[in-house]
Amino acid sequence: MRIVLGVEYDGSAFFGWQWQDGGLRTVQAAVQFAASKGANHAVTIICTGRTDTGVHALDQVVHFDTCAERSHHSWLLGINANLPDDVRVIWIQETLEGFHARYSAIARFYRYIILNRDTRSALQRDRVTWCHQYLDAESMHQAAQALVGTYDFTSFRALKCQSVSPMRLMYFIDVYRQDEQVIMDISANAFLHHMVRNIAGVLIAIGSGEKPVAWAEELLASKNRQKGGVTAPAHGLYLAGVYYPEKYALPKHSIFNKLPATAQRFQHEKQL
User: Fold this and answer.
1) Are residues 112 and 100 part of one domain?
2) What is the pLDDT of residue 269?
3) 32 lies in a domain?
4) Residues 227 and 132 occupy one common structural domain
5) Residue-range definition of the domain harbouring residue 218
């Protein structure tokens, strides 16, 4: 039986998602331990996308295989009882054979939150990125539209990114202001390492007036990461949702209603 979980976590005190040797605290280790306790046997957790140190999740999707039979309520209680306070399973569902948390995904949705005011936040210091310079959200949104479509995102990937191809399909990028926050909602069929944070760094430079609106398009065309801007901090970033084919009947964030009907899953290198 394949079980799918929606996982919420505060990444502030974790060394990223992926299990690491040496006893470092990771989200995968925490969830795998709790799920193994709930199943009463060792399980291996597979996630949609590995988040870096300090990155949060509103709805990370993971799966594991088990021979244990439990009600949804029992799974939810059993796993959460063995999780630390900064990780929670928010939903659980059995799924069809062949589902894969990473390879079955059609789209990922990230949210980047910037606190745009004169002073830092005492309460949100690890959950938002602070920028004291006023940001023009409309200019940031305008600049971001040049990145929507299928492109080579070399200029926005980490120099050590291990993905074979830099080609990705960007479905949408929306930048808007809510009171003291400037928020970027971004969705693609898949993302390169540091891609969202590098895009956020470029848009912050544009929003502050340091760079012109056309800079985002110029960087995209250059296909040169060394010409890009600063990588925005991790703590403003959230994995906010994942969209799968309707046949799996998994929870769907309303923002995915914006996707075109032709949206299809990304062909990962290991699948080609």
Assistant:
1) no
2) 53
3) yes
4) yes
5) 107-239
Task: Spot the catalytic one: 21, 52, 65, 174.
Answer: 52
For 67, the 3-state DSSP assignment is coil
Q: Give the separation between CA 40 and CA 60, rounded to whole angstroms.
A: 23
Percent of the chain predicted with pLDDT > 70? 98
Instruction: Give the residue, 15 or 264, on which the prediction is more confident.
Output: 15
Q: Which residue is listed with tokens 């062949």?
A: 98
How far apart, in Å, do the first and last CA atoms of the chain sit? 26
Question: What amino acid occupies position 135?
Answer: L
Residue type, 193: H
Query: Environment class of residue 150 by beta-carbon count within 10 Å: exposed (0-12), middle (13-18) or buried (19+)?
Result: exposed
Q: How far apart are CA 260 and CA 255, in angstroms?
A: 12
- 174 noted as active-site residue: no
SS (H, E, C) 141-162: HHHHHHHCEEEECHHHCCCCCC
Residue 254 counted as domain residue: no
Q: Yes or no: say if 187 and 172 are a contact pair by the CB < 8 Å rule.
A: yes
The pTM of this model reads 0.94
pLDDT value, residue 272: 40
* pLDDT, average across residues 217-242: 94
